[in-house]
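Bug report (template v2)

What were you trying to do?
Predict the complex of my protein with GN1.

What happened?
Run completed; filing so the output is reviewed.

Input:
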Amino acid sequence: MKDLLSIVSHFKIQGSVQEIKPLGSGLINDTYLVATGDGTPDYVLQRINHSIFQNVEMLQANISAVTGHIRKKLEAKGEKDIERKVLHFIEADNGKTYWFDGENYWRVMVFIPRAKTYETVNPEYSYYAGVAFGNFQAMLADIPDKLGETIPDFHNMEFRLKQLRDAVAADAAGRVKEVQYYLDEIERRAEEMCKAERLHREGALPKRVCHCDTKVNNMMFDEDGSVLCVIDLDTVMPSFIFSDYGDFLRSAANTGLEDDKNLDNVNFNMEIFKAFTKGYLESAKSFLLPVEVENLPYAAALFPYMQCVRFLADYINGDTYYKIQYPEHNLVRTKAQFKLLQSVEEHTPAMKEFIASCMG
Ligand code: GN1
Ligand code: MG
């Protein structure tokens, strides 16, 4: 606490700090709530995982560009309550939106009062989330700044497969032999799953500014269920729209947990799919190309698949990327994502039918 307190003291916050405690469930950065007394805002303090986000200057420049652009759009629309609808980062005494303590990078943002995050949502909230992510992409369609890739090739499926194959070749933790079944299942789907990269090379599929981490818990809801804003902006960068559509469904339409040990719990929930898709298409239909709409069921499969590849590669590497709570955690995650993928595959014809009905 004392160290955290001295870090916070480098940021221009209001009020005096009463308490600092852990917040949220992210797998990458460390997040804390900084409570101040009555009458002044609370804050969120984050230690940026800079072994993953190596270019912190670029990271924070992207985030400033995105939040600045959204703020202007909200102001132009005459939106009220703007402070709760876009993140607000606090300047440090070095004039930047982050502070380097010689070892770690830190940042502080205003805590949004009375907002809630959820690990699971009902169809109604999924519909709101669909509208919100469609709007998020629409608002960023004309951002004048060129955003950097904070993690190069982040959602590039060909690259993620290469990482997995490199991990298998090195077999650093001696775990390859126990995961052969999953490696075979992954390879069987590899060509189909790299479709987006191929379409992009052919000039048929554009990149747009996307959020790229649309897990349901990266969205703030107001008390009445409406969406306030999208958080966790570290990965906002040019990508295929599949990223945002697919990753939301991967988390929200899973009837089980991302790391469920009981695979019977894990299935793809079509009610969530329908509600989210309806909302997303309502706000994104006007700018989406036919090739993007046609491939939404592919996107729904791509993200459990990609996450399965990433968790498995990390397991094989000996758990160097994701935070884990027990030794087989990444393997448990891999199995749960694979089960989700299988369920998505079973529902593909029904998904296509539903999407056609929304476009009709
Ligand atoms: C990470 O930071 P967090 O926990 O929201 C990861 C995502 C994965 C997700 C899996 C920078 O997100 O890509 O989909 O875990 N973020 C990064 O839960 O790798
Ligand atoms: Mg998060």
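What did the reviewer find?
Strands lie at 17-22, 30-36, 43-48, 99-100, 105-110, 208-210, 219-221, 227-230, 237-239. The pocket of magnesium ion (ligand 2) is lined by residues 26, 215, 217-218, 232 (CB under 6 Å).
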